[in-house]
Amino acid sequence: MQGLLIDEARSGALLQGLHTGPDMLSRDYLKAARRVLEDLVAHPDPFAGLTLQRKPGGYARNLLAGDAQVSIWAMVWSPGCATSIHDHHCSCCFGVVSGVVRETWYRAINASQAVPVEAHDRAPGYVACMLPSGPNIHRMENCGDREAISIHIYGFDHQMHASSIETEYALAKL
Ligand SMILES: [Fe+2]
User: Where do we see the 3'-(S-cysteinyl)-tyrosine (Cys-Tyr) cross-link in this protein (predicted)?
Assistant: First the structure.
């Protein structure tokens, strides 16, 4: 299990803004997560002082805060790296701090294959929040030639789950 990158007080303050009630899949929760992310991406200075982990050629996850219901991560995307095509077992909210992250949406054609539907380049300041009931199948990729950083808030306990991913899909050959 990964340790926290920021001190407990800051971590607790971040989490406090997310606890809207017992239902972490509600619209109120998503609104709260959006508010937290909008604030983080608009005022990213605190991240400048953090020693974020990097993964050459890939993306690195840095745990900023987490409890039994939610976890907040800073993701560092190396140029050219990408996630798998995947959906989530929990709510997924993210905001871009620096660089550009391309998000491609997919439609499943069976239990293991998906086709692309649309793609968007997400620039600094962009924030998205989604529930797992979508279905929300996507892939994130740093198409640029410099590093990108994004903040992700997931509705999962980082001590219980290794990641937010529910199902991974292969690109369907049509
Ligand atoms: Fe995702």
Answer: 92-154
Has 19 been labeled as part of a binding site? no
CA distances from 17 to 8, 39, 85, 137, 148 (A): 15, 11, 30, 27, 25
Q: Is the pLDDT of residue 108 over 80?
A: yes
Asked whether residue 152 is marked as a ligand-binding residue, the answer is no
First to last CA, the chain: 40
Cβ-contact 39, 134 below 8 angstroms: no
Between the CA of 87 and the centroid of ligand 1 the distance, in Å, is 6
- Mean pLDDT confidence for 29-37: 92
Q: Quick one: average pLDDT of 158-174?
A: 88
Q: Where are the domains of the chain?
A: 8-171
Global confidence as pTM: 0.90
**Is the domain 8-171 a CATH 2.60.120.10 member?**
yes
Cα 92 to ligand 1 centre (Å): 7
